[in-house]
Structures are given as C-alpha cells and as structure tokens.
Amino acid sequence: MSSSGAPHGLLFVLSAPSGVGKTTVVEAAIRRTPRLTRSRSYTSRQASDGEIDGVDYHFITRERFEAMRAGDQFLEWAEYSGNLYGTSQVDTERVLAGGDDLVLVIDVQGGAKIRRRGWPAVYVFVLPPSFEVLERRLRERKRDTEAQIQRRLDVARQEVAAVSAYDYILINDTVEECVGTLQAIVQAERARRAGDTGDAHAAAIARAGRAIRGAMEDVIAPILAGFARPRS
Ligand code: 5GP
C-alpha cells in the first residue's frame, strides 16, 4: 500500500450471510455518502437474471480466474458454493490511492485473508434480526429449493461464528435504519482518521462510535444464540 503521504482512503470489509440484504444496504449507503464506493469482484459463477457484467461482478471463466490467481492479481479470493470469487489488488489500490473509501463486500474467508495480510481495514458484519427471520427471508425470495435453503442456513451458521473478529456488528431489521447505521460507522471511522491528526471534535465522535458498539452486545448475544441452536 502507499506510504507516500498521498491521499489514502479507508478500507471497509463487509460480510453477512446470504439473504441478510447486504447488497441493498451497501448500495444505499454508497448513494448517500460522498467518496464512498464498493469494489467489483471477479467471479467464475454465472450471472443471474438482472445482473450486469462490470456492474454487479466481472463475470469470467474459471480458467481466466485461475490464471489471474496464478498471476497473483487478487488481494484475496475464496471459493463459495463451488464458485470462485476474488478482489482485484490493482483495482483496490487505485481507489484507495485516489483517496476514496472502499467497501469490499466479501465472505468471511475473504475477510480473514485481508486480516492475515495485515492491510488496515474496518470490519463490519451484518446480522439478520434473528435466525428465524433469515430463514423466512430466504423462503420468501422463492429462489432456492428447500435443500439449497438448508445449505445456505448451514453456511450462515458457520459464518456467524466469525463475528467476533469484526469491529462493528449491524442488524438489518429495517433497511433504512441499517443504512443509517452503516453511514454512521463510515462517519465515525472518518472522524477517527481525522482524530489521529489531532482534531478533538472528530476524536469525540469516534469515541461515541465505539461506545455504541459496547451497548449493542446485549442485543447481539440472543441473535447469535439462535444460530447456535441445533437444527430441529
Ligand atoms: P453471491 O453469489 O451471492 O453474489 O455471493 C456469494 C458470497 O460471495 C457472498 O457472501 C459475497 O459477499 C461473497 N463474495 C463476493 N465477492 C467476493 C470476493 O471478491 N471475495 C470473497 N472472499 N467473497 C466474495
């Protein structure tokens, strides 16, 4: 990463189980927040109906993905449900070097890889209000068979086990509220960065952000307990 003192954006890593609604939340937060953008990952999976190449993902063949991986072009990559997903290292560096803040919407394996690489990043995990609500949302989408829904829920159980490694935990109860909280996190982290340069007001906002996180623990524990219950 740049060490030149040139403008440098913040990196946010955002993960959530499938069906929580993370894409809607991130897109809305980006529309409302200047100088915040999200990465476009590369994937070997097929585009679904309505998805656009270069907008939702860069859709590429497995062979091309493997060639990029062999060429060390990914900051991180992961296999999810039999498909490969990766974040381009040069795209990430370009956005951050330009001074914009960047959200990587990636799974928990990807989050762990960024952490191991030692890149400074802010980690945000989005939970549903409960396990039951997640199950209901997955059914209401009418996209999957019962077996696929059960598989997504099993993956979700594994994913929430990683939550303690994240700096912030959001609950997507209503989209509006969740978007507002994500924007507040971005503001708090921007303030923290400014606080590092000695701005007392900004440092106070950053402290408030951390205090809110502490108060949330009581809300989060029962949600996590719902994921830990054995399958009925
Ligand atoms: P979907 O196929 O539903 O779009 O994505 C499946 C999972 O892969 C989601 O959890 C999504 O966040 C994650 N994902 C998307 N792009 C990347 C990426 O570049 N790296 C990693 N590690 N995960 C990704």
Describe this protein's structure.
By secondary structure, this protein is an alpha/beta fold. It has a domain of 156 residues: Rossmann fold, CATH 3.40.50.300. Helices cover 50% and strands 17% of the residues. The chain contains eight helices and nine strands. The strands form two sheets. A five-stranded parallel beta sheet has the order 2-7-1-8-9, sandwiched between helices. Helix 1 crosses helix 7 and helix 7 crosses helix 8. The longest helix is centred in the last third of the chain and has 29 residues. It is globular, with a radius of gyration of 18 Å. The N and C termini lie far apart (48 Å). The model has no long low-confidence stretch (mean pLDDT 90). Bound molecules: guanosine-5'-monophosphate. The site of guanosine-5'-monophosphate (5GP) has 14 residues, from strand 5, strand 6 and helix 4.
Topology of helices and strands:
Elements: E1 11-15, H1 22-32, E2 36-38, E3 42-43, E4 58-59, H2 62-70, E5 74-80, E6 83-88, H3 89-97, E7 101-105, H4 108-117, E8 122-127, H5 131-140, H6 146-160, E9 168-171, H7 175-196, H8 200-228
Parallel strand pairs: 1-7, 1-8, 2-7, 3-4, 8-9
Antiparallel strand pairs: 3-6, 5-6
The structure holds guanosine-5'-monophosphate.
The site of guanosine-5'-monophosphate has 14 residues, from strand 5, strand 6 and helix 4.
